[in-house]
Amino acid sequence: MKALPIATTGAPLSILAIGAHSDDIEIGAGGTLLSWLAGASPIDVDWCVLSANGPRNDEARASADAILKKARTRKLHLMNYKDGYFPAEYMSLKNFFQQLKDSVAPDIVLTHHATDAHQDHRLIAELTTNTFRNHLVLGYEIPKWDGDLSRPNMYFALSERALAIKIEHLMNHFATQRSKDWFDDETFRGLARLRGMECRAPENYAEAFHVNKILIS
Ligand SMILES: [Zn+2]
Predict the structure, then answer these.
(1) Distance 215 CA to ligand 1 centre (A)
(2) What pLDDT, on the 0 to 100 scale, is given for residue 10?
(3) Ligand 1 midpoint to CA 21 (Å)
(4) Which domain holds residue 178?
(5) What CATH number should be reported for the domain holding residue 192?
(6) Is 5 within a domain?
(7) Measured in angstroms, how far is the CA atom of residue 164 from the centroid of ligand 1?
(8) Distance, CA 47 to ligand 1 centroid (Å)?
(9) Is 101 part of any domain?
(10) Taking Cα atoms as reference points, which of 41, 37, 109 lies closest to residue 67?
(11) Cβ atoms within 10 A of the Cβ of 165, count?
């Protein structure tokens, strides 16, 4: 399948990346972001982590700073919602998204996808698509104990090098997660290999996304 470029080479691209927790954006779309940022287009990024509390705030900030080194501009929105309790904070989160909408104008929104089994992820997916209604919204995947991986419908092929940088980045920046039995090289590489197989990625690896609506020209 021929890959269609998401933007004209060299043209600026504005990205809003949203994650419930400090490592979500990196797990779901780290390889895609690193690849875009290594390209020729100037990229402006708004980086939003809703539950970045205590040590996870430092992790989120250090990780975003490292990934976004090549961004033309970057703005971090690190919030303190309690991990696991997002549905109980619905009103406040809804207000946050409304305010966010007024301060950004993204070409692409990266967020959780609607059938993610984690309640925080699912609510963020819902609020993103409710708020950014005239935007390209890409829902990324987070492998987890719940076994909620399903059928994605958009792929970004990764080079071997991009995947290696992504995995090294995850291992280096998220010390709080390394004790979790699933947080390892094999999980991330295995999923990327399967997604790469599904889209016949030239270097075998890919990240996959769920997209509700896409406008082509
Ligand atoms: Zn998460």
Answers:
(1) 29
(2) 85
(3) 4
(4) 13-210
(5) 3.40.50.10320
(6) no
(7) 21
(8) 15
(9) yes
(10) 37
(11) 18
Task: Report CA(172)–ligand 1 centroid distance (Å).
Answer: 18
pLDDT at 135 (0 to 100): 96
Tokens of 49: 């982590």
Residue 2 forms part of a structural domain: no
Bridging pattern class, strands 108-112 and 154-158:
unpaired
The values of phi and psi at residue 185, to 5°, are -50, -45
Distance (angstroms) between ligand 1 centre and the Cα of 118 equals 7
CA 22 to each of CA 12, 25, 60, 196, 199: distance values in angstroms, whole numbers, following the listed order: 26, 8, 5, 25, 28
**Is residue 215 domain-resident?**
no
Structurally, the chain folds into a number of domains equal to: 1
C-alpha 15 – ligand 1 centre gap (Å)? 19
Dihedral angle of Cα 75, 123, 205, 173, to the nearest 10 degrees: 50
Q: How far is the CA of 121 from the centre of ligand 1 (A)?
A: 6
**Of all helices (H) and strands (E), which one includes residue 58?**
helix 55-67
* pLDDT over 90 (residue 6): no
pLDDT at 37 over 80: yes
- In this prediction the pTM is 0.96
Does position 114 have pLDDT exceeding 80, yes or no? yes
Å from CA of 83 to ligand 1 middle:
8
Over the stretch 117-157, which tens digit does the pLDDT of each residue have?
999 999 999 999 999 999 999 999 999 999 999 999 999 99
| Per-chain residues with Cβ under 5 A from ion ligand 1 | 20-21, 24
CA of 40 to the centre of ligand 1 (A): 30
pLDDT band at 208 (very low <50, low <70, confident <90, very high): very high
